[in-house]
Amino acid sequence: MLSALDRRHTVAPPGYSRWLIPPAALAIHLCIGQVYATSVYKNSLIAHFDTGQTAIGVIFSIAIVMLGLSAAVAGTWVEANGPRKAMFVSACFWATGFLVGSLGIATKQLWLLYLGYGLLGGIGLGIGYISPVSTLIKWFPDRPGLATGLAIMGFGGGAMVASPLSRQLLSFYDSGYDPANAGSTASGSALVWLFVTLGLGYFVIMMFGVANVRVPAPDWRPAGFDPAAVAAKPLVTTANVSAANAVKTRSFWLLWVVLFCNVTAGIGILEQASPMIQDFFRDNGTSAVTVAAAGGFVGLLSLFNMAGRFAWSSTSDVIGRKPIYLVYLGVGMVLYALLALVGQTSTALFVLLACVILSFYGGGFATVPAYLRDLFGTFQVGAIHGRLLTAWSAAGIAGPLIVNGFLDAQGEPGSLTAAAYRPALFTMVGVLAVGFVANLLVRPVPQRYHEPSAEQNTQRDADGNADRDVDEDEDTTAQRSGTR
After folding, report:
1. Which residues lie closer than 8 Å to 350 by C-beta, 6 or more apart?
2. What is the 3-state secondary structure (H, E, C) of the chain?
3. Across all residues in the chain, what is the average pLDDT?
4. Which of 228, 230, 258, 272 sits 20 to 30 Å CA-CA off 39?
């Protein structure tokens, strides 16, 4: 049965529709995108374990760090074994993470929650995140931005599904829990059953992706697709670069900086979104924005985060990957400066600025696989993408540290105003400026890093055969001379 997961059994038959691949990828990303919804039951976990916010927040941090590390380490394995086996392994780790986490909740052993949801679940996150990328790019060589945007959009939208679902499940398992009350906490048994339900439910949904994913035949091309037309675009190569060689190039590390800067700036707002909008419109200790309205603002940010992944990455197919990152970073600098200077003058203006910033944040995630394909080809683009995601892990630590560090120096939570956020926001302008310069410096990968082409391999084999023929002739001549 396990042999059905092998790459050779996933080659699509003639006539297979490539539009069946994005839903398969979406099934994986919608499930693992639940990691962005952990705040829903954070207070309940704090109450259950009788601990602080930092101790529970570490769970999310471990999961994001393991996402980047597992994607980097397992990237080559994913490329070699194909998307079906990778998606299956991801589903197993992700579901096991929930089940081990539920055991930790049931026994009040916090370290089991770290091990389960954080470590094991984080491994499932990393493998699942990169597993469909290479396959989508091979199915959509004419529109790689659109394809990866469709799938990675699911990661941003996973929280939009998981947040209300988790609240309703907690209220189902605990009649005393009020999903409409931000201060309500669920019982330990409700948390246990929530984790068990999510683990098993997500496993079933991810199996849909496992069953339906296919890789194209080696000679397959979309109808009417002309590789020469794509190669004529700036920075797009028809050559291939291995993951081992990609990390030796300057372009890879420049893109690492670009992704790090874009994510650091966006995640700083995302992590602080709810208290931030309340603080910006606080007067004499009272905020004009209610807790419920702040929750709606967070949901709106998630919507723009998700929509940006599809809309901006699709736009990159038209204007190019380098120009779209100039938009993310350059326009992003202007928006952050406006948010710091005039964001407190109008709630509508604040929401608009924050939503566009978060759409750039999501767009950066969705566009980077296509950027990598342009620079390094399709040979091991999934493995290269995995290595690049270590920038996400680093940014997941740096972004909140920058914002929270400045805010801690400004005063106590609940008493801050818009002025307290200005140092952090202007720091993010500087971070985006670094990324803007790094993107300008991206250049095509030098030919010395390219994999040999089929013609070069053929010529090399021919030269090797010719050399052997010469050696054999010389040996024969020497033998004859010895005989005489």
Report:
1. 277, 280, 281, 339, 343, 344
2. CHHHHCHHHCECCCCCCHHHHHHHHHHHHHHHHHHHHHHHHHHHHHHHHCCCHHHHHHHHHHHHHHHHHHHHHHHHHHHHHCHHHHHHHHHHHHHHHHHHHHHHHHHCCHHHHHHHHHHHHHHHHHHHHHCCHHHHHHHCCCCHHHHHHHHHHHHHHHHHHHHHHHHHHHHHHCCCCCCCCCCCCCCHHHHHHHHHHHHHHHHHHHHHHHHHCCECCCCCCCCCCCHHHHHCCCCCCCCCCCHHHHCCCHHHHHHHHHHHHHHHHHHHHHHHHHHHHHHHCEECCEECCCHHHHHHHHHHHHHHHHHHHHHHHHHHHHHCHHHHHHHHHHHHHHHHHHHHHHHHHCHHHHHHHHHHHHHHHHHHHHHHHHHHHHHHCCCCHHHHHHHHCHHHHHHHHHHHHHHHHHHHHHCCCCCCCHHHHHHHHHHHHHHHHHHHHHHHCCCCCCHHHCCCCHHHHHHHHHHHHHHHHHHHHHHHHHHHHHHC
3. 87
4. 258
Chain segment 174-221, per-residue pLDDT in tens: 999 988 776 788 999 999 999 999 999 999 999 999 999 999 998 888
Confidence class for position 314, pLDDT limits 50, 70, 90: very high
Compute the distance between CA of residue 361 and CA of residue 287 in angstroms, rounded to an integer.
27
Q: What confidence score (pLDDT) does residue 233 get?
A: 75
Q: Let me know the angle formed at the C-alpha of 399 by 393 and 400, rounded to the nearest 5 degrees.
A: 105
Cβ atoms of 209 and 27 closer than 8 Å: yes
Report how far residue 332's alpha carbon sits from residue 349's, in angstroms, rounded to the nearest whole number: 15
The predicted-structure confidence for 280-307, as pLDDT tens digits, reads as follows 888 877 778 877 787 778 778 888 988 9
Q: What are phi and psi of 290, to 5 degrees?
A: -75, 165
Local confidence band at 387 (pLDDT 50, 70, 90 cut-offs): very high
Whether 120 contacts 132, CB under 8 Å: no
pTM score: 0.83
Question: Of residues 181 and 348, which shows the higher confidence score?
Answer: 348
What does the block give as tokens for 340?
């710091």
| Residue that wins the pLDDT comparison between 456 and 140 | 140
Contacts 24+ apart (CB under 8 A), 414-417: 414/275, 415/282, 415/285, 416/275, 416/279, 416/282, 417/279, 417/280, 417/282, 417/344
